[in-house]
Amino acid sequence: MQESIFHKLSNILWVCVVTAVVLLATYVSFGRYLSTNLQGWQDEVLTQLNSRVPFVISAQRIGGQWSSFTPEIVLHGLELDLPDDGTRPLQLTGGRIGIDVLGSLLTRSLQITSLQLDGLTLHGELTEEGRLVIPGLSGDGGTLGEWLQDFLLNIEYVTLDNNRLRLSLPGGSTRDLALALHLARDGSERSLRADLLSARGTSIRLHGMGLGNPFRPDQFEGTLYLQADTGDIAAVADLFTQTPPLWAEGELGSEIWLSWDRGEAQVDMELSLVDPVLRPEDGSWSIPLDALSVKATLLERRNRWTVYASDLSVSHQGVVVDIPRMQFDAWGDSLRLRTADLQLEPLNRLFSGMPAVPDSLRSVFDILNLRGEISALQLAVGDLADPLAGWDAEGNFDRLQVDSWKGAPGVTSGTGYFEISDSGGYVVIDSQQFSMDFPTVFTQPLYYEDFYGTLHLDWDSEALLLHSDLITAAAEEGKAQALFSLNIPFSETEPGLEMGLLVGLADSHSVYRDKYIPYILNAGLLDWLSTAIGDGDIRQAGFVWRGSLRSGAGALRTVQLMLDLDNTALAYHPDWPPVSDLQGTVLIDDTNVSVWTERARLYDSMVAHLSAEAWMDGEQQMQLAIDGEVTGGAVDGLRAVNESLLGSLTGGVFDNWAATGGLQTVLQLQLNLADKTAAPLVDVSVDLADVDLTIDPGRLPLNAVNGQLRYTSAAGFRADQLQARLWGREVVADISQRALRGGDLPFAIADSALEVALQGSVAARDVQDWLSVDALSLAEGVAVVDGLVSVIPGEASLLTLRSSLEGMALDLPAPWKKAAAESRPLELALPLGGEKTVMGIALGEDLSLHLDITGQTLQAASLGLSAPPPELQPQAILAQGRAGVVDVQAWLDFTSRYLLPADTDDEGATQPAPQAAAPVAEAAEGFRLGINGMQAERLLFFGREYQGVNFSLQQSVNGLTVRGTTDWLQGEYQQPVDGPALLQLDYLDLVARDGLDSDPQAQGEGPDAAVAEPISLPDIKVSLTELRIDGKPAGSLAFDLSSADGEINADNIQGDLMGMRLLAAAPGRLSWVPAQGSRLELPLQFDDIGDTLEQLGYARFLETDEGEVVLDLGWAGPPDKASLAELEGAVRLGLGSGRFLKTPGGAGALKVVEIVNLAGIVERLSLSHMFESGLSFDTVDGEVFFHTGTLEVASLSVRSSASAFAMSGVSDIATRSLDGELVATLPVANNLPWVAALTAGPAVAAGVFVVSKVFEKQMNRLSSGVYSIQGTWDEPQVDFDRIFDDEMRLESAAEARVVPAELTPAGSANIDGETDKGDVQQPASQEDP
Questions:
Q1: Structural domain includes residue 1105
Q2: What is the pTM assigned to this prediction?
Q3: Is residue 1316 assigned to a domain?
Q4: 963 in a structural domain
Q5: 876: helix, strand or coil
Q6: CB of 666 closer than 8 Å to CB of 629
């Protein structure tokens, strides 16, 4: 297969490569061999080197070293002996020389490619001319210089390491510098790198690149970078042969770029100084800074040097000044500076904080406090040798702010252009949102939305003068035009800075007046001007200032202000109402003020004439005088009083008064504007024409008032014989001012009372309608009254009325009820205003009434009877005191009728309260009725009259509580809204009731008893703690009291009564139907009835272990009117074991009871020897019936183991007669005396006794005797009647008496708990013989 050309070429290439590698390897191996044996040819090598250089090279030892493909000669202990006479050889620690093998072979001479020298020490000198001289190297050229230039132009690398330069300075000091240098060449392109380090810390680093021959500047171009850093820049100053006029201390960091282009140079640099201190050559001042940095470019064109600086930054104590760009141009003796975007505030702060700046200049910077920006600035100096001879400055400023200086105006937001030279200048201002600050003239800067004009500057050796053309300024107040001038003397003068300012304004508003009023005017005048001129239009205004700006130099200037006003309000004094719609002129000339009006209005009234004059009096106090005439309505006059000083001095009592009608007013005032405590001089005269006046609070109407009212500072208000009408009736009114302070003290309205005296007749109905108080409807008719309205500053007005009330009737409970014809003194006091309205009424000396009618509704009431009324309490009607007669129901009716809201029917008519036996008045919602400690000699209550009663009553929406005390009763009654009422009686004496008188008609016994209203009671739980009889305790009771269908019931009667008990298992009951009668049912249980007899006042003739008595009685009349003659019903008696005792005889009612004393009867039968200790028994059963005037003992059975008695009979209560029988049964065999008694003789008795022993069983059947009982209660007669011979009957020999069923309580229990089934008492059973 035939190979291609490419395969052949690749084979050839590989052969060449391999051959080249082998040759190079052979070359390197041979070179390394020669290098290692170079020391053997040391002399030959040095000889060859010396033959090619213009100096002598010597070395202690040489060697060879192969580096890549280049052989190097290594020299140790190297010395260079320069051709200059008298110089020491240059000592080096060593060196390396690189040989160009190929070049040497081609040129057949030694060619050096690189040179490295180590440890070179040079000695140099800096001459006073600024030349650097290194002995042996600083000649004027010659062979060495030419060789060195040629050597540097052709060698590829030159390196100097670890070299030192000992430099001698002109001042004699020496500096040691460490030097490292590296030169490289690649064809015509060359590079330089050098490092220079001073022993004092200065470090200089060079980097350069160029093209061409650097020894021929016109054929070379390149750049050089220099970085120099030093910790002490002052050390660098020693390198200058001449000290710079301005130098600095501190740390320096700099970078410099030098560009060279065939003879034209440009230098760019960046300098940075840390903590520099700038000093002049003579060291007379210093400027310490925190930092300084700048970037600059230096150019030279056509004999003009130009420096472009940018990013100049200077900082000092936190203040940083940045100047973005600057340009300096210098040619000949001329200099020009240009800059832009120069911020003035940091520059001002920098200068004011530098100690090097003179104090006077620093104070200027401090005061002016420059802010803003110089957007463009050019400063030119024609001759640097005499800079003040010809200079000029021009520029633009923006947002310029300058504070005021010595009264000269400060400026804010100034924008414009200025041009100034050594001969004068001008400033053109064209600004928006511009303001000028006159701190010695105006409190606030003069602000303008648009401001433009030209300000000229002229000066001479004595003063600087600023004066303007016509300035135009636009602001909220309108378009103003002004002329301004300012004279600033260079030396101290009496007026100091003098300003002229003329401002004219048209078609503006009065709200802007304060802008042009200087605050240096009199303080009182300023206060007046600040409030006097209100809203309105300014047709024209002018302000003038001429003279000194110095504080306190009022005599060296004049200030004037003119206002032409229209539709403006004028508040001539804060204590007096302003006038409106004023058209007039205000002129201020220093401290004098004049106001003239063509027309004005006071509210809706016309001001026909008004003038105001202000002036400085002899005591240097501003005085103001007002003179005016007003015609208009009374409503404006009253409003003027309320809104003026008069209203405050009178405590605002007229605030709610109302007035209509016409007034004609003449006003004169004089006010001290400087002394607020000085009382004004006031003289006001008012003519009233058919004025309707309403005094409120109180709504007191005075109509058709005519007359003259006058007010003066010396006497206050005064009017005589004003004619008016009150509620349609004619009255006469006098108005006066009464001083509250005594002595000879001068009159002061604040310490006086305004009094309006009224005299005329008043109808009670009008007073009620006026106050809208229903309670006053108790009065009817018309009476003459004397009234007085007292108005005291700081207090509520007071209306007092006095009258004899002739012609007026009063509907009061007796004894205070009054007929129209009677005369009784009345005093009434009513406050007209205040938080509460409490009316006080005094009727004679006995009755006082307080009514809280706040809000025209009754809030509370209190009544005092011969005593002061109690303190008012919200929603309460209270009473206290003492009275001869108190009718509780009448007072409750009075309270319901007049003091509590009345119920109305559908047509609005008031409904009368229903008559009730219980004294209850319905409390209005939220109201309570309270009577505390009321003492009544006679109290009418519940239809009864009580003597010497002390009672209290509390009634509210929660219920009624009544507590009363007499000598025989004390207790409390509580009636809640829901649930039963409670009556808690502490004690009740049934006998000691001298203070209780009955009202027959109320008890149903009078002629109207048949038509008496039914009594309705709530459910009442009654608790009687102590029942007394004639002052002695008799027990305690509890029961439930209620009413239904006209019947009053006391149910569930329980407790103790005279030693007897009413148990819950069998309670008692009392009922009462008015006009019909009462009924009592009491099942009483007891132990020893003797205790009960003793408590009732009877002799203790009976003793028991236990017993029961059941009362079922009725009578015609109320419960407390029970009488023995009217009783209907029965009394059932059941006793356990006991005995009858012998007692002394009684009388009257006691005799009635002692009829049943069998011990007495036995004694009358001469059988007392049989019952020495009384008549004992096992049981006693009996029943007594009452038949309206008749008392019937139906049966009375006494049983014992040895005897038995039975008694029955009838008594007429009216005649107290007795008609009855007694059956006594005793066993004959054991009782001979009894037999003798029966037979009326002892002989017969003995025979009977013998027979009874023989026939004992049969004789027991013949042991009963019957006795008749006759006579009266006082003298009862007991006589033997007959003997029973069959069996003993416990009833009388007559037929058994039948008890009416309606009078016998069904199911009445006897002592053994058994129930009697029939109506007739059954005889006792007897055993068979």
A1: yes
A2: 0.49
A3: no
A4: no
A5: strand
A6: yes
C-alpha neighbours within 13 Å on the C-beta side of residue 1155: 34
* 97 DSSP β-pair partners: 73, 115
The per-residue pLDDT for range 924-964, each reduced to its tens digit, is 456 788 888 888 888 887 667 888 889 888 877 778 888 98
**What are the angstrom distances between the C-alpha of 1051 and each of 442, 746, 979, 1071, 1083?**
100, 81, 17, 8, 13
Two structure tokens written together for 489: 């003397």
Structure tokens at 541: 């205004």
Residue 450: both structure tokens together: 């648009």
Q: Write phi, then psi, for 231 (nearest 5 degrees).
A: -85, -15
Name the DSSP letter for residue 68.
Answer: T
State the Rg of the chain over Cα: 71
* 808, two tokens: 């007026």
pLDDT one-digit tens code per residue, 1085-1109:
999 988 888 887 777 888 899 999 9
3-class SS letters over 585-648: EEEEECCEEEEEEEEEEECCEEEEEEEEEEEECCCCCEEEEEEEEEEEEHHHHHHHHHCCHHHH
Would you say residue 194 lies in a domain?
no
Residues 6+ apart with CB under 8 A from 1262: 1228, 1283, 1284, 1285
Q: Label the pairing between strands 121-126 and 157-168.
A: parallel
CB atoms inside a 10 Å sphere around CB 281 = 11
The Cα–Cα gap between 588 and 590 comes to 6
3-state secondary structure of 1003: coil
Choose between 426 and 522: higher pLDDT.
Answer: 426
How much is the average pLDDT of 141-165? Answer: 76
d(CA 815, CA 496): 96
d(C-alpha 996, C-alpha 555), whole Å? 102
Closest to 1017 in 3D by CA, of 970, 985, 1058, 981:
981
Compute the distance between CA of residue 91 and CA of residue 495 in angstroms, rounded to an integer: 84
End-to-end CA gap in the chain: 191
Using alpha carbons, list the distances in angstroms from residue 573 to 629, 749, 1170.
17, 19, 125
Q: What confidence score (pLDDT) does residue 1112 get?
A: 94
Give the model's confidence band at 1156: pLDDT under 50 very low, under 70 low, under 90 confident, else very high.
low
> 501 near 492, Cβ under 8 Å?
no
Tell me the C-alpha distance between 1158 and 661, whole Å. Answer: 106
372: left (phi over 0), alpha (psi -120 to 50) or beta: left
Bridge-based pairing of strands 287-288 and 1175-1177 is unpaired
Q: Which residues contact 151 (CB under 8 A, 6 or more apart)?
A: none
Phi, psi of 873 (to 5 degrees): -130, 140
Q: Considering Cα of 640, then 641, then 643, then 646, what sign does the dihedral take? A: positive
More confident residue, 982 or 619: 982
Separation CA 326–CA 315 (nearest Å): 18
Q: Which domain holds residue 20?
A: 5-36
* DSSP β-bridge partners for residue 421: 392, 424
Give residue-wise pLDDT tens across range 795-807. 778 888 898 888 8
Q: How many residues can be counted in the chain?
A: 1329
Q: What is the mean pLDDT of the chain?
A: 79
**DSSP output for 887-904:** EHHHHHHHIIIIISPPPB
CA atoms within 13 A on the CB side of 1102: 24
The answer to which of 10-14, 731-735, 1295-1299 has the lowest mean pLDDT is 1295-1299
Give the span between the Cα atoms of 860 and 851, in whole angstroms: 6
How much is the average pLDDT of 1224-1239? 56
Query: How many domains does one find in the chain?
Result: 2
